[in-house]
Structure formats: C-alpha cells, structure tokens
C-alpha cells in the first residue's frame, strides 16, 4: 500500500544558498515542494517543507533520503518526517501551471 509523507528540514546557521542545495538534493531524491489538493491544484508548501505522495517507500526510507539531502548541504540540521492520509491547509499559494515540472 502506498503512503504519503511530509518532511520538514531546518538547516542551522545556514545561508539561502544552503537551502538551494537542499531543495536540489530533495528534488533529486523524489521530494516535492508542493502538495496536491483534492481540487487537483498543486499548492506551494512553506520553505523547506516537502512531500512524497503515493509512494511505496517506508517512513524510514523517506527519513534516510531526507537526511542524506540535508547532510549534502554541509550544515547541521533538524528534521522531522511523518506519514499522512489527509492534510488540511490554508493560505498556501497555487503553483502556476508554467512553474510545474513536466
């Protein structure tokens, strides 16, 4: 059964360039900076928050991948991963179609 996961990473004593590296590494590992709503739209998550939706991976596998991405920044970090069946949000901007990955 596939699961959906939410991951939040905080880099300590980091510059924006460290977060750019984190975003690149997380994307390579299959994480998204957006979440799909029931309305079909993609919503931009807060900075350094990521999802993996409809994945066969285990929570530990997701955690390990996120830790590897955080380590690649060269900064100390704090990280939390959780699985979810549903999510609710307010005020997140819709990702414009022109900015969505093909």
TrEMBL record:
It holds the Pfam family GhoS. It comes from the Bacteria. GO terms for molecular function: RNA endonuclease activity. InterPro entries: GhoS, GhoS_sf. This is DUF2622 domain-containing protein.
């Amino acid at each position: 059964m596939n699961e959906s996961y939410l991951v939040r990473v905080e880099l300590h004593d980091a510059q924006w360039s460290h977060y750019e590296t984190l975003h690149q590494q997380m994307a390579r590992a299959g994480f998204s900076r957006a979440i799909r709503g029931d309305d079909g739209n993609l919503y931009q998550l807060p900075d350094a928050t990521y999802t993996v939706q409809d994945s066969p991976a285990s929570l530990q596998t997701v955690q390990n991948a996120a830790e590897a991405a955080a380590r690649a920044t060269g900064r100390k970090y704090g990280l939390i991963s959780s699985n979810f069946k549903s999510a609710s949000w307010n005020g997140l901007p819709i990702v414009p179609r022109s900015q969505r990955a093909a």
